[in-house]
Amino acid sequence: MATTVTLEVDVCFATRVVVGVAAVAVVAKVLACAWRRARLSSIAGRARAHRTAAVAGAAAVVPAPLTAENVAEQLQRLRKVFRTGRTQTVAWRMEQLSNLRDLLLENMEPLRQALKADLGRHAMESNNADLDIVVGELDYMLSNVERWARTRTIASNFVALPDSSHVRYDPLGVVCIMSPWNYPVNLALVPLAGAITAGNCCLVKLSRHSPNVSGLLFKLLPRYLGTECFTFEYEGGADMIKALIAQPFDHFFFTGSVNVGQVVYEGAAKHLSPCVLELGGKNPCIVEQSADLAQAAKKITWGKFFNAGQTCLAPDYVFVHKSQEQELLKHVVRFIKEFYGEDPSISPSFGRIISEQHTERLQGLFKDGEIVLGPSFGYRRIFSLLMDETIDLSFPSVHYVQ
After folding, report:
1. pLDDT tens string 266-308
2. Residue 393 — pLDDT band, cuts 50, 70, 90?
3. Which of 14-18, 51-55, 164-168, 358-362: highest mean pLDDT?
4. Rounded to 5 degrees, what are φ and ψ at 362?
5. pLDDT at position 391, please?
6. Are 379 and 353 in contact (CB under 8 A)?
């Protein structure tokens, strides 16, 4: 004989419970954010006080400027400071990250002007690519550095019993950072912030090809971070690079061309130094027949002409079906004019090629193919140049557009 059991659920009560739990979670989140902001504000205040005291004190020893001849001496000086353990405390790391954040927030306009002088950048482009993004990275590191540096207990295997096991995250020592010219603030300060977060001393080689930005950072960085745990340089060329990679740094971070990256990697390998290489590459863009050509053209145009195409992730060339080639080109031309006006050479929204040398190199690429849109050549006047070239890739229905 079957028995039927009926369960009655108070829907209103259940709803109230769910809403109550959600409200508690929201309040807890708000309080946690408020506490974090107050704590970071307190850290920033202490960092500013220490920085002011350091600037006011005249007894601090200022190290000799970095040259190709004294790289070994500077490395030993930084290594000696690292061995004192000063950079390994979480408090020191947070203080320096806060100082770096203040550097950006207090010098936004001078940095924008320097980026405009070197790369012709519009203020919004500079904010998006080089300034605000770094502030966001610093906020993220400040919020997580304590958790990242914390020793973690892990389970022991049978052989290790009854011992306990844990993972401890130790800094490597002295990091050598070599930054590029195309994003001279972002790709100098983000690796520097990462090295600081890990508790390292740093030697930072800024790019001489962006003299206004690098010169400004060269003046500001010692003022905000000091020179005891850091060394900065921006005027040296190939000789400086060779001198740096000849030394046994504990880590190399290089951003630039493949050719120089190979040299850096070879030098690091001689000392078995770990190495991070952020190199340029080739970025094909494939437009399928089913694609919305207008949307594809808009995205390709934005990606290619952002920072005047001087981005390692910018589209290098486009594969499109032969039957759609001309339509895609028309859309690209339309969006170039929509973004930068009928005459992009006078547009404040379009950047400029970094140097005469790079301009001449680009001119050499334009001897083949048909120029669909572009001006007469001139120093730092390369802009919005669109080429149409068909190449044989054993795919008769595929065209190449650059």
Report:
1. 999 999 999 999 998 788 899 999 999 999 999 999 999 999 8
2. very low
3. 164-168
4. -65, -35
5. 44
6. no
- Name the residue among 171, 286, 157, 174 with its Cα closest to residue 230: 174
For residue range 89-115, what is the model confidence (pLDDT) as tens digits? Answer: 999 999 999 999 999 999 999 999 999
> How do 201-205 and 230-233 pair as beta strands?
parallel
Closest CA to 309 of 277, 337, 336, 346: 336
Q: Is 320:290 a contact under the CB 8 Å cutoff?
A: no
Scan for tokens 């980026």, then name that residue.
115
**Could you give the CA distance from residue 266 to residue 142 in angstroms, rounded to a whole number?**
34
- 59 pLDDT more than 60: no
What pLDDT sits at residue 402? 35
Residue 263, Cβ neighbours under 10 Å: how many?
16
Give the Cα separation of 378 and 92 in Å (integer): 49
Distance of CA 15 to the CA centre of its chain: 46
176 is catalytic: no
| Cβ atoms 275, 308 nearer than 8 A | no
Two tokens, residue 95: 């203080």
- Catalytic hit among 278, 342, 356, 389: 278
Identity of residue 299: K
Long-range CB contacts (within 8 A, 24+) of 218-224: 220/103, 220/107, 221/103, 223/55, 223/103, 224/51, 224/99, 224/100, 224/102, 224/103
Say what the pTM is.
Answer: 0.81
Spatial separation of the C-alpha atoms in residues 141 and 134, rounded to whole Å: 11
Which among 285, 312, 338, 360 is annotated as catalytic? 312
Measured CA to CA, the distance from residue 250 to residue 198 in angstroms comes to 13
Query: Is residue 57's pLDDT more than 70?
Result: no
**Whether residue 312 lies in the annotated active site:** yes
